[in-house]
Amino acid sequence: MSLISAYDAALFDLDGVVYLGPQAIPGAAEAIATLREEGVRVGFVTNNAARAPQTVADHLTELGVEARVDDVVTSAQAIARLMASELPEGAPVLVTGTRALRDEVMAVGLAVVNSSADHPAAVVQGYDPEMTLPRLEDACHAIQNGARWYVSNTDSTRPTDKGLVPGAGALMGLVRTAVDAEPTIAGKPYAPLMEETITRLGAQRPLFVGDRIDTDIMGAVGVGMDSLLVLTGAHGKRDLVGAPAKGRPTHVGYDLAALQEPPRVVEFPDAHTATCNGASARVEGGEVALDHVPVDRDGQLDALWCVANLVWRTKADAGVALDRLDALR
Question: 3-47+190-260: what fold?
Answer without folding.
Answer: Rossmann fold (3.40.50)
